Amino acid sequence: MTNKQMAEEILQKVGGKRNVISYSHCSTRLRLDLKDSSKIDRESLDKLDGILSVMDVAGQTQIVLGPQVQYIYEELQGIFPQSSSASSDAGSQKKKGFLGSALEIISSLFTPLIDVLIGAGILKGLLSILTASGLLTDASGTYQILNAAADSLYYFLPVVLAITCAKRFKTNMFVSVTIAGALLYPNLTALYDAGKAISFLGIPVQLTTFKSSVFPIIFAILLLSYVEKGLAKLLPEKIRSRIAPFFSLLIVVPVTITVFGPLGSMLSNTIAGFYMNLYGFNPMIAGGFIGAIAQVLVIFGIHWGLFPIIFSNIEKFGFDTILAVFGPSIIAQSGAAFGVWLKTKDQRLKQIAAPAALMGFFGISEPAIYGITLKYRRAFAAAIIGGGIGGAVAGACGARAMAVAVAAIPTFPAYFGAGFTGFIIAYFGAFLISAVLTYLFGFNDSMIPESERADANITADHTELGTSTCKAVAIKVHAPADGTVLPLNKVKDPAFSSEALGKGIAVIPKNGQITAPVAGTVAAVYPTLHAYGIVSENQEEFLIHIGIDTVKLDGKYFTSHVKTGDIVMPGDLIAAAEIDEIKKAGFDPTVIIVDTSGGSERKMTLLREGSVSSQEDLLLIESL
């Protein structure tokens, strides 16, 4: 199955375009906000090759796909751009509670930055290695240029977060970035560095440093979202775009510098101080605890709550220890998957376990978790033990990350420095411990469900191939327009009424909005725009024909809203027809739907008679 086909399948099985409020992705998951989660066909989703798991976390549906999620997300954008989603339908969003909303916001702000954060972290680590080995001095021009590349993201983090915040809170992006720029303005930074006291309108201001900060800019853009909404109500539309930014800057920048700056600094110091006190009490216990529970947090998607703490640690202390004790938990899942690969004789399971084990070395644990360890729970327990031991060793050695870089072999340079040797021992030790425990105690082939064994799958495949010519069909056909139902044998065209082209149904339309009766791919758009072919997901072929003999109009009075290759869902607009003009021209505008692939092998059950509305269930097609 191609990435495009996977995107199409996912969209259909979560209830179609009309059920999607918005969607995003992280490194392994497609995250969807849906109007009604009960419309998800979970059983079918779980059976799709490539989907590791489907879960609801904090009011959000998450589909775990592994590293290919980015490519499926891109295909989904092509099929269903965000701008055409129902994201503006705020009233349809479910209440997620404070914790769920906070986690969702944090995730949406930081996930777009992960790759570049890792890249910058690797570069910072390489510079540390080069300077420690004497191959480069921090006074050299080479170092200064490379350090600027590595450090700019962290220094200007408020500016980058202003962009993600603007997208999340739906504010003017240029105003948002300007606010962030004001926080890092050289004159203000110089005053802070000099320790000078200033005032604003006679009120003393406690200047704080905003470089690498997280909370002040989030608070600022959240405030901006409310300011912009208020200004939209107060300012006339003709001058709003020119005047609103003035008031936004006038209000938000002073409030951020005088209020959110000190508040954010206090919050960062409190969080970082609390963690460091806990870590300082006993780093081995703290590391072992985080190493053991880290992947449990990943399962529920709440590991994003650690990122503000990680940034606070780096901002306050110049390093972070959470990432260092978190790392062994990732590779421990790979170790458990490797243990399964060594132990099993099932070729299908080996094909799943091998890439799952490999991905952990690139910092991605979800393929191992959802493909292997959660399915065989003793393997997951072995990984928790391995991750806990690895985390304890990393904590005891004082291992730390000098930048935000999820532990993986390519990111090792970011961990160079104090405790680096201990970190390497903890990392590979977690892998070996988990692999050995899984091999000895965590898995055997008797745990594989009968239906998932390779020999069972081969039999099933052969059976399916043998019966492909008489494939079972059960499809609901939806009304293509508002109007009156007309049996096909009463259509005033013998080619249709005789069912020579196939069985089907017709609707006498009240208006010219013609919608897709089934989900599928547009296989044909006739040059005269009066007829369309759609192939459903199970390869049933449908003809949607607008009017009798309307081919003679040569496209006049018709407008197509789709093109060949488009994916459509029931109710999507495929064409518009000027019904009154068609009637005046002497043509019958009846809309006809014919299943051209089944003929006498199909049973048609009429689900509605008389008046019908577009998208209502109209016909049930079943194989005999």
TrEMBL record:
The keyword Nucleotidyltransferase does not apply. The keyword Chaperone does not apply. The chain crosses the membrane at residues 102-123, 143-166, 173-192, 212-231, 243-264, 284-307, 319-340, 352-372, 379-409, 415-441. Pfam families: PTS_EIIA_1, PTS_EIIB, PTS_EIIC. It comes from the Bacteria. The active site is at residue 26. It is a multi-pass membrane protein. One of its GO terms (molecular function) is protein-phosphocysteine-trehalose phosphotransferase system transporter activity. This is PTS system, beta-glucoside-specific IIB component. It comes from Anaerostipes rhamnosivorans.
